[in-house]
């Protein structure tokens, strides 16, 4: 989940924590958008000078909810070739519990460098970067890993891009990096989870661990559609989901997660 520091999320961490308690969660990890150097796509993230403020903000919520909800610090870090050194430094500097890696193709810098006017070629480029991001070893989990389907929904077809996805997933599976099932996809142009069921099945075949995320940019979205997400995961063959503490993967049976959830809609 996010904080107002990224300039496109609302609500204090405590409000997210409150909703998490209502939903029966045992803990939450804040993964706001990473600061980046060189003024790289600055309007959707904290500035490097705000990093300490972010850490303090999450710490404040952690203390306020101690004993009721386990609140932890993480980061959603951008993967953009050439900036690996920066993410490495961030990871060294902060005690993150979970680092998400994101290929945000809709950023100006990404489009300027990689958009060549062919939507399917752009999707291929995205999945290549997804695999590359896993291979850097900088990230625990790849965030919303089919987000590119929203770039040009009319050109999104698993029949066309399936082989490229398979090749990327083979590379990702070899790294041991997890992938996210992000429920906020339901609110995007292509109204399905990121990734959708077809790709989730391909991930399951390769035994890639899945982390459930709501990508909340508003407190009301915490644990949104988690019950439905667990149903989809079971339907494609998953029996457990994962989360990270101290950047170490923990697995938990889907039945146990379902039993703990409350207050769903
Ligand atoms: Zn965001
Ligand atoms: Fe993201």
Task: Characterise the protein shown here.
This protein is of the alpha/beta class. The chain has a single domain, classed as TIM Barrel, CATH 3.20.20. Helices cover 38% and strands 17% of the residues. It contains 9 helices and 8 strands. A 6-stranded parallel beta sheet has the order 1-2-3-4-5-6. Strands 7-8 form a two-stranded antiparallel sheet. Strand 5, helix 7 and strand 6 form a beta-alpha-beta unit. The longest helix has 18 residues. It is globular and about 50 Å long. The two termini are 19 Å apart. Bound molecules: zinc ion and fe (iii) ion (FE).
Task: Please give a handful of descriptors for the protein shown.
8 strands, 38% helix, alpha/beta, binds zinc ion, single chain, 6-stranded parallel β-sheet, two-stranded antiparallel ribbon, 9 helices, binds fe (iii) ion, 265 residues, TIM Barrel
Radius of gyration: 17 Å
Number of helices: 9
- Domain unit count: 1
Overall CATH class: Alpha Beta
* CATH architecture descriptor: Alpha-Beta Barrel
**CATH topological fold name:** TIM Barrel
**CATH homologous superfamily descriptor:** Metal-dependent hydrolases
* Poorly predicted runs: none
Care to count the β-strands? Answer: 8
In one word, what is the shape? Answer: globular
Q: Termini distance?
A: 19 Å
Report on the biggest sheet.
6 strands, parallel
Task: Describe the structure concisely.
This protein is of the alpha/beta class. It is 38% helix and 17% strand. The strands form two sheets. It has a six-stranded parallel sheet with strand order 1-2-3-4-5-6. Strands 7-8 form a two-stranded antiparallel sheet.
């Amino acid at each position: 989940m996010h904080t107002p520091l990224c300039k496109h999320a609302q609500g204090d961490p405590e409000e997210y924590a409150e909703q998490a308690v209502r939903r029966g969660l045992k803990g939450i990890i804040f993964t706001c958008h990473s600061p980046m150097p060189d003024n790289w796509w600055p309007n959707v993230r904290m500035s490097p000078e705000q990093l300490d403020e972010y850490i303090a903000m999450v710490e404040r919520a952690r203390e306020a909810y101690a004993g009721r909800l386990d609140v932890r610090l993480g980061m959603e870090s951008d993967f953009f070739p050439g900036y690996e050194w920066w993410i490495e430094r961030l990871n060294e500097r902060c005690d993150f519990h979970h680092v998400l890696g994101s290929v945000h193709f809709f950023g100006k810098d990404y489009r300027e460098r990689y958009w060549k006017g062919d939507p399917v070629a752009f999707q291929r480029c995205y999945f290549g970067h997804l695999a590359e991001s896993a291979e850097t070893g900088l990230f625990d989990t790849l965030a919303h890993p089919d987000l590119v389907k929203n770039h040009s929904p009319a050109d999104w077809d698993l029949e066309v891009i399936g082989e490229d996805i398979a090749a990327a997933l083979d590379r990702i599976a070899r790294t041991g990096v997890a992938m996210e099932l992000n429920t906020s996809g339901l609110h995007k142009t292509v109204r399905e989870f990121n990734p959708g069921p077809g790709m989730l099945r391909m991930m399951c075949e390769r035994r890639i661990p899945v982390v459930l995320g709501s990508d909340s940019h508003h407190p009301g979205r915490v644990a949104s559609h988690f019950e439905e997400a667990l149903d989809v995961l079971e339907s494609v063959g998953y029996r457990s989901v994962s989360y990270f503490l101290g950047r170490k993967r923990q697995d938990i049976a889907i039945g146990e997660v379902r039993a703990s959830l409350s207050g769903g809609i």
